[in-house]
Write a structure and sequence with these properties.
β1 and β2 form a beta hairpin. The chain is mostly helical. It contains nine helices and three strands; from the N terminus they run ααααααβββααα. It has two domains: 68 residues, Fe,Mn superoxide dismutase (SOD) domain (Helix Hairpins, Orthogonal Bundle); 102 residues, minor pseudopilin epsh fold, CATH 3.55.40. Strands 2-1-3 form a three-stranded antiparallel sheet, with helices on both faces. Bound molecules: fe (ii) ion. The site of fe (ii) ion has 7 residues, from α1. GO terms for molecular function: metal ion binding; superoxide dismutase activity.
């Protein structure tokens, strides 16, 4: 069994930037469906999942029987991507990283503001459903990537540490077609303390 994370805040905690109804539906319905469908697809394949984290499954797709790979990409990616998304949002978001992580950001992007601008542009320009991510590679180098649908950067040996979900279900109830407004506002609730924790985590997938 692979599970969605416990939501680390109340449904209405991200108001006014992300509204209560959206969090309820997004976490309680959309993410729940990915979790349910993932576990259903993996029934009878316990020998392949035993002792493996979800990200290990996603990263080593070729080790899985072909008939379940698509379900693992779509529903497993759906659980993994959403778990990251909900884990880095907070009503008491720390507004800036610090220390070595901030140094690495400055080195790679010039400044935190530049990084935020690049990530904002990546999220706004992702065509159709998908995500923009801040990722680190095996040498802890940072970069920004976009992915379509529920594809995860984990599939490409990258470790995602921040993500912006730009599926319409993430913003449409409040923002309708104005994805850019949602992406600009989400910075108010992205917790750099949590992102920094993931950057500093040496644990490999
Ligand atoms: Fe989503």
């Amino acid at each position: 069994m692979y599970n969605k994370i416990e939501l680390p805040f109340e449904y209405n905690a991200l108001e006014p930037y992300i509204d209560e109804e959206t969090v309820k539906t997004h976490y309680g319905k959309h993410l729940q469906t990915y979790e349910t469908n993932l576990n259903k697809a993996l029934e009878g394949y316990e020998e392949y999942t035993k002792g493996k984290t979800l990200d290990q499954l996603i990263k080593n797709l070729a080790d899985l029987p072909e008939e379940i790979r698509t379900a693992v990409v779509n529903n497993g990616g759906g659980v993994s991507n959403h778990n990251l998304y909900f884990s880095i949002l907070s009503p008491n978001a720390k507004k800036s990283p610090e220390g070595k992580f901030l140094e690495e950001i400055n080195k790679t992007f010039g400044s935190l503001e530049n990084l935020k601008e690049e990530l904002t542009n990546a999220a706004i320009s992702q065509f159709g459903s998908g995500y923009a991510f801040l990722v680190k590679d095996k040498d802890s180098k940072l970069s920004i990537v976009k992915r379509v649908n529920q594809n995860s950067p984990v599939m490409d040996d990258l470790i995602p540490i921040l993500t912006i979900d730009v599926w319409e279900h993430a913003y449409y109830l409040k923002y309708k077609n104005l994805r850019a407004d949602y992406v600009k506002n989400i910075w108010n609730v992205i917790d750099w303390g949590k992102v920094q924790g993931l950057y500093e985590d040496c644990h490999n997938i």
